[in-house]
Amino acid sequence: MGKVLTVIFILFSGFAHSSLYVEPSLAIAPIAKLKDTNSTGTYKYSSNYIEMGTRVGFLHDRYILGLDLNHSLLNYVYKPEQVTDANSFEKYLDRKHYNVGFFFSYSLPKHLLLRASYFMKSELKTVLDRSGRTATDVGDKYKGYGYEVSFTYQELPKVFLSLIYRYNSYKEFEDGGTGVISAFPSETQYDYRTRAILLSVGYPMKFLD
Length: 209
What we know:
Elements: H1 2-14, E1 19-38, E2 41-60, E3 63-72, E4 79-80, E5 93-108, E6 112-129, E7 141-156, E8 159-174, E9 181-183, E10 189-202, E11 205-207
Antiparallel strand pairs: 1-2, 1-10, 1-11, 2-3, 2-4, 3-5, 5-6, 6-7, 7-8, 8-9, 8-10
């Protein structure tokens, strides 16, 4: 982590005489997948969600470097893809997520933009359990990291249209009831990850030119 922060500091130092960049955004994920691999098997789920995001950083020539923050706007549910998983409790769990990290963008000709983000902190949390069980999953959290790559087109002077691929890998589970934290992989939980395709609309703003 120390080396990463050192590199980030050096990069930001090079942007000292740049413009301040702010980009709020709204995105929809028409395709969102969850893969849960544990001691009983591999289970796959699908969903879709809406999220809000904000990027804040520095713009210099064709480059933008800064913070990338996003979170789900509404609760959403992962539904089992396999018939054998029809009794899974996942379909009763309302989730929310957030990601915090850094992004780097490079402007291409013809109003095109390439962007990559690395999320140092990602969290998927259960906010509502509708299964009717006595033992509730409310408050359970999966914590990890993630990254995304996007291809952006500037359709109008102040509108960015983006196609995004995102991947998250969760390495810790925190029990909402007991607060006990378990690390992955373990004897019972091997892997827990999500993937999504998002369509985003952003409103880029530049200050302190």
